[in-house]
Amino acid sequence: GSLNRASTIWIQTTRTDAAGEAAMAQALRQFYEQRHFKIDAHGLFFGRDTAGQIIELILNNFGVIIALLGGMALLIGLVGGVALSGILSLNVLERQREIGVMRAIGASSASIAGMFIGEGLLLGWLSWGIAAVLSLPAAYGFTQILSEAADNDILFKYSPTGALYWLVIVTVIAI
Fold first, then answer.
1. CA nearest 92: which of 115, 108, 123?
2. Quick one: which of 60, 68, 70, 132 has the most CB atoms within 10 Å?
3. Is 54 within the bounds of a domain?
4. What is the structure's pLDDT at 51?
5. H/E/C letters for each residue in 140-152?
6. Tens digits of residue pLDDT in 1-13
7. pLDDT tens digits, 53-92
8. What is the Cα–Cα distance from 160 to 162, expressed in whole angstroms?
9. CA distance linking residue 66 with residue 61, whole number of Å
10. Are 13 and 33 contained in the same domain?
């Protein structure tokens, strides 16, 4: 820094709502400009003057990251669904004789299809269970790495409802 110069000023106000912060930022900007202080016209932090605006900017940026990670998760889920359908198709081809014997003794198409749907569900639920167990340490580690990269403490929070949503998605894909 330079002697007798400041690059940032932080002010705490009694009003903590967004309108109060914006009004105070505007009043301070006018106060300093009237006294011929040189003030950055673009704001303190990426064009933002108030804590509320800065938090909103950060949350919007994390929203992009979360959307990208969610899209990647859906893509991985779809790839898993395609792989599962390929495995089940090979399973049907390998078991043609067994299916023929079952049909010869009176098995209906619905019961044979139910057998393969059950196998698909079993494989899907098994993969979901393994992923649920492995996701906890992986997510915690990712949070720690992101926290160190941002040089800020980020709280790890596991969402059981998210895991249940994925169970429903896996079930639909497996059927």
1. 115
2. 132
3. no
4. 66
5. HHHHHHHHHHHCC
6. 556 666 667 777 7
7. 777 777 777 778 888 888 888 888 888 888 888 888 888 8
8. 5
9. 9
10. yes
Contact 173, 81 (CB under 8 A): yes
Whether 137 shows a pLDDT value over 60: the answer reads: yes
What is the residue-averaged pLDDT of the chain? 80
The β-bridge partners of 48 are 45
Total number of domains in the chain: 2
Residues 103/112, Cβ–Cβ less than 8 Å: yes
CB atoms within 10 A of CB 157: 7
How far is CA 132 from its chain centroid? 15
Is there a domain that residue 81 lies in?
Answer: yes
The sign of the dihedral angle between the CA atoms of 152, 136, 134, 160 is: negative
Question: Is residue 91 one of the residues assigned to a domain?
Answer: yes
CA-to-CA distance for 79 and 35, rounded, in angstroms? 63
The reply to whether 91 and 163 lie within a common domain is yes
DSSP string, 3-49: TT--S------S--SHHHHHHHHHHHHHHHHHTT----TT-SBTTB-
Q: Are 100 and 157 in the same domain?
A: yes
Domain that residue 14 falls in: 1-49
Q: What's the start-to-end Cα distance of the chain, in Å?
A: 64
Length of the chain counted residue by residue: 175
Tokens describing residue 149: 């990269």
